[in-house]
User: Fold this.
Amino acid sequence: MTATMAETRPLSRRDDFPAIPDGWHYLDTAATAQKPRVVIDAIELGYGRDYATVHRGVYRRSADMTIAYEAARQRVARFLNARSSDEVVFVRGATEAINLVAQTWGLANLKAGDRILLSLLEHHSNIVPWQLLQERTGIAIDVCPLTADGNIDLDAAEAMLTPQHKLVALAHVSNVLGSVLDAKRATALAHAVGAKILLDGCQAVARIGADVQDIGCDFYVFSGHKLYGPTGIGALWAKGELLGAMPPYQGGGSMIDRVSFAGTTWAPAPQRFEAGTPHIVGALGLHAAIDYVEGIGLAAIHAHELALVAKTREALSAINSVQLFGPADSAGIVSFAIEGVHPHDIGTILDEEGVAIRAGHHCAQPLMEHLDLPATARASFGIYSDEADVDALVRGIERVTRIFG
Ligand SMILES: Cc1ncc(COP(=O)(O)O)c(C=O)c1O
Assistant:
């Protein structure tokens, strides 16, 4: 994951992204990334030339598709530096991955009296699955506070963690504030009390990447559509020994060893967790997306987005009524509010200017409550973003402030 050729070529590769017309400033990449031509081509070929099911067919086309599908799994494993592709489960996205861990590992290993630690900035998909588990098991959920600039406060986490804690589940990069977790320290803190750690890598995979062996975490999850890949596909990575011991999630075809009315046995991981016909072509698209992102280089992408964040924060902080959230070194995300203006109005006026931002609670209502706001406006960058996007955003915000006096 190094910036090989990236420093010498521009990252703003608009031509690769057919759904970004000239004059449109897409600043909602944290919600979902636009798709490069290579991903669209992989999907088109997957359905239009190579299509067949996987794992079942005895005919050549199906065998080839199985090879391609498993090659995508290997690509994800390499991307995360997993020890083996057997540690990678294809899921619909991060939301399904976290629910899977909660309902399998969680149900099998947690009981009343156990505690888990989340943080104040988590996305609802890293809160609600644990609350569902709480209803079924009686576990307690603790919430780690944030530092003043919007990082997860790991000193506080250290003070809060006890041997009763069995799991820590944290965002690697915040979808609202862009703050980057010190994932290695968080992992060391969790392991020091004997807890497992799950990292929600949704925003991290397209910005800073993840090396699960280096971090040392136990579970890592992400969604393909935030990594310039298709929707409906994502990955759960878990340490082999954990995944191997986890009971199934959903039952059905493909996840079994043998079925009889006297009793059914399960396939080994990862197939045990992939009941039903999978999102075959989604996996091929994800493969193409990872190739594309790594071809540019995550270090270069991160540096590019840091520069755009710095420019945006500098310009917005010069406007009196704008309040900025999150740390200065946010990974590609700038959340802000304008005094006396609802974020939806900001979003609507910016849309008239051809600038697409997100306005809302960003599926992080506990964080909004902490900020004492119903919502924020959020601009988020990607490979294709450039200074013209920042200029258009700033012009649009100046117009908002003129309109609202
Ligand atoms: C940090 C974070 N976690 C989880 C999710 C959920 O991802 P998905 O809706 O693709 O499952 C998102 C999506 O916004 C996110 O940003």
Summary: The longest strand covers residues 165-171. The chain has a mean pLDDT of 95. Residues 93-95, 123, 125-126, 171, 175, 200, 202-203, 223, 363 surround pyridoxal-5'-phosphate (CB under 6 Å).
